[in-house]
Amino acid sequence: MRMRSSRSNVRRSLIFSRALSSPQRIESSVTPASTLMSSWANAVAASRRRKTTPTSFFIARMTLRHYIKFATLQWTVVAKISAHTPRTPVPWRFSRRTSLKRTTSRQNCLGRESLAELRGNLQTAIVNIQQINAYIEYGSEKLLMRFLLADKDGASFGGDALIVGVSEGLDAQLQSLDNHLGVLGTIELPALLKTRHFHTLGKLPFKYLVVVGLGKKPDARTIRKASGAAAKVCRDLGAKKVATLLPTNPEGIAAAVEGTLLGLYAFTKFKTSTERKEIEEFEILRPSTEENISAVRRGQVFADSIILVRNLVNEPASHKYPERFTQHVRESLRDLPVRVTVHGKRDLEAMGMHAILAVNKGSPHEPRLILLEYGEGTPIALVGKGVTFDSGGLSLKTPADYMEDMKSDMAGAASVLAVVKTAAELRLPVKVLGFMGLTENMPGGDAYKPGDIITAYNKKTIEILNTDAEGRVVLADVLAYAESFKPAAMIDIATLTGACVMALGTIASGVIGTSQGLIDKVLDAADAADEKMWQLPLYDEYLETVKSDFADVRNSTGRGPGAGAQMGAAFLRSFVNDTPWCHLDIAGPAWTIKENAITSKGGTGFCVRTLVKLLEGWK
After folding, report:
1. Alpha helices in 342-450 (DSSP H)
2. Distance of alpha carbon 369 from alpha carbon 371, whole angstroms
3. What is the rounded distance in angstroms from the CA atom of residue 523 to the CA atom of residue 491?
4. Is residue 67 predicted with pLDDT exceeding 80?
5. Phi, psi of 407 (to 5 degrees)
6. Which residue has the higher pLDDT, 530 or 136?
7. What is the pLDDT of residues 548-558, one digit of tens each?
């Protein structure tokens, strides 16, 4: 009867452990394993000394057996990475998935192995307790990609493809693999971020060895890109189960997960073909420590947010007009500690937001102003331009093909959404306010016209000379409104000017502002995030140039003075008072027509990583 009672208690404790609902509690539920192992080991040792089998021995044996059974029920972290409008699940929602066999036999429990071997068996069961899943949707098809941590060497991996990196020559692990293959020492190893793959011909337990160049001093940014490049090769080879030896520390693990997911991303929502080669399981051959588990989660969170921006940017304009965009925002932030406030057309009229209302006049879809609030304390304000389609208005874009990618003119607003979402998922100790001004810019009988004068939220007047310079007009209202919340700093993100693309190309964004300290923080964060940004000047002469003869400011200076990126920033400066302010013109890098290791054609998700890095280091 006593034994039956003990079994019942253990079963109850296991059921309680399985009911845990937060990652912190799941991790803490694993902690008693060391205590349990000690108790079991002590019981075995005592029984051997006494040559008896006391009740405590049987209880410890039974408890260990149940614990290992529990450990082999891998808890999965479920996160969606949609290739279309995503629905964000509860962060770290857990489900149960059985995939490991019990590692301790009856003979082991009866004490026929050494204590060291028993500890090893228990550790093997515990090491595999974390499996992190990412759901990737392609149209209506949902594909599952599992991430696992396993402390073993490459030669014991029994899947389809193993990814290894080379810097200068073969390291010990590569040499060990090549002892079986005999090819790496006879070929030219791949250059930085270049890949080569070899069939193992049955000489190793996996089918393909994928080698990627890491350069002389590989860091997280190299690991991110190398992982994306190698993952694409594995996918194209038809590999379902892949392992990697690239990352060596938690930072590298996060980068590897992020790079893998970004590299495999493709926007195929509107593709009718459903045949796709996809990786189902990705194993990181590193110990399952708390640091490494958190790193896998971090990499998934970053990739999820960047892909959110890509999905929204790639979505057709007819699927993301302001009302629909608002639905995307609510769905993306569901179950996160973020307060969402949406102001419709009537609210904007009552608030005196006549600038955004003017831009919206030609569109059948009403505008929206969205405020996101996360955290506590003195806030940092992020302001995003959200022109969901820009035809140029009555100043119609010419030639017409300039409109082909103008569905991306809301990339700034999408970036703000993604940054706030990431801050909430990572539980960053900072208060963030996210502002998104959403409208279309369309021609029509009611559209605003060149020569119109409108009054912004802060009562300043704007002369409209070019309706295609609408982004700055929208931001005039939103910046002035954001400053009324008295933030410690304001950063606006906008695909603002073609002039910035002419100056910096598509690989870098322009950075302009009033506070050199804030600009330096942004540039440092960009460097840490491996995103290119360049500071442009904001001279007093630029501020004079945007003044109007008939109003306070004009929204265009024509082609005469040049410096179009600075003129756009000078206009925005007129709607910021004393708050430290920084403007990011992401017109170039927000969209790409060239695919690389971690970026596909279309939206890029540029600046999300930079702004999250900035918030993480904010003081």
Report:
1. 345-351, 354-360, 411-425
2. 7
3. 13
4. no
5. -70, -15
6. 530
7. 999 999 999 98
Q: Are 470 and 455 in contact (CB under 8 A)?
A: no
Taking each continuous run of H as one helix and of E as one strand, the counts in the chain are 20, 22
CA distance 292 to 564: 46
Second CATH level (architecture) for the domain 315-616: 3-Layer(aba) Sandwich (3.40)
Instruction: Tell me the average pLDDT across 561-566.
Output: 92
Q: Is 472 labeled as catalytic in the residue annotation?
A: yes
3 state DSSP class of 338? coil
Condensed to tens digits (0 to 9), the pLDDT of residues 418-461 reads 999 999 999 999 999 999 999 999 999 999 999 999 999 999 99
Give the whole-angstrom CA distance, residue 154 versus residue 176.
Answer: 9
CB burial of residue 153 (10 Å; 0-12, 13-18, 19+): exposed
From the number of C-beta atoms within 10 Å of its C-beta (0-12, 13-18, 19+), residue 452 rates as middle
Residue 544 tokens, joined? 């004079």
Is the confidence at residue 75, as pLDDT, over 50?
no
Distances (CA, A) of 254 to 216, 221, 264, 279, 408: 21, 10, 16, 18, 28
Residue written as token pair 């017109």: 587
Q: Is the domain covering 129-299 a CATH 3.40.220.10 domain?
A: yes
Please name every residue paired with 461 in a beta bridge, in sequence order, or none if there are none.
Answer: 455
Q: Specify the higher pLDDT residue, 165 or 176.
A: 165
Choosing from 225, 472, 573, 613, the catalytic residue is: 472
Per domain, the residue ranges of the chain are 1-75+87-126, 129-299, 315-616
| Paired sense of beta strands 368-374 and 431-441, if any | antiparallel
Q: What is the DSSP string of 582-594?
A: EEEE-TTTTEESS
Q: Tell me which H or E stretch contains 107.
A: helix 106-109
Catalytic residue among 69, 119, 324, 397: 397
Tokens of 429: 């100790």
Beta pairing partners, 455: 461
**pTM, to two decimals:** 0.80
Q: Where are the alpha helices (DSSP H) in 315-386?
A: 322-332, 345-351, 354-360
Given this model, what pLDDT does residue 186 score?
A: 67
- CA–CA gap between residue 491 and residue 284 (Å, rounded): 37
Task: Give 159 or 48, the one with higher predicted confidence.
Answer: 159
The tokens describing 387, both together, are: 């022109």
What percent of the chain is predicted at pLDDT more than 70? Answer: 76
Are 523 and 499 within 8 A, CB to CB? no
Please report, to the nearest 10 degrees, the dihedral formed by the alpha carbons of residues 70, 71, 72, 73 taken in order. 60
Computed on alpha carbons and rounded to an integer, the radius of gyration of the chain in Å comes to: 28
CB neighbours (10 Å) of residue 8? 10
| Runs of H (alpha helix) within 129-192 | 172-181
Residues across the chain: 619
397 as an active site residue: the answer is yes
CB 212 within 8 A of CB 194: yes
Assign 136 a pLDDT band (cuts: 50, 70, 90).
very low
Two tokens at 467? 């309706």
Sign of CA dihedral 605, 607, 613, 619: negative
The answer for residues whose C-beta is within 8 angstroms of residue 284's C-beta and 6 or more apart is 147, 148, 149, 150, 243, 244, 247, 253, 256, 257, 292, 296
